[in-house]
Amino acid sequence: MGNYTNHESQDLVSSLKSKLNIPDMPMGGFAAAAPAATAPPPVEEEEAVPATQEKTLFTLTLKSFDAAAKPKIIKEVKGMLGLSLVDSKKFVESAPKMMKEGVPKEESEKIIETMKGLGGVVTMD
What we know:
Strand order of the largest sheet: 2-1-3
Order of helices and strands: HHEHHEHE
């Protein structure tokens, strides 16, 4: 595999994906790979009983960041989402973008404080 050029490697990956019936995964980590078809029913249940249930899982979105803190934000996103350095850079540069989905409140608050300390703005929805 070490003797292949980048183009040859991409062709090999494409042919293996088609032969093994492997779907392409969207960039952005686990949150972006969540199936969209299963998301709407729980939302309807939450809307039906908003007074008795407190929301416990949140979606974190990177809204913006301080330009001087960009390298620190990229490094933190890389560690948090398990992305490569290149993918982390693309992720941060495409802000505003959803970071994580289904995060407990305590963890959400820690992530928000960490990113705020580094110069990033993260919202909890």
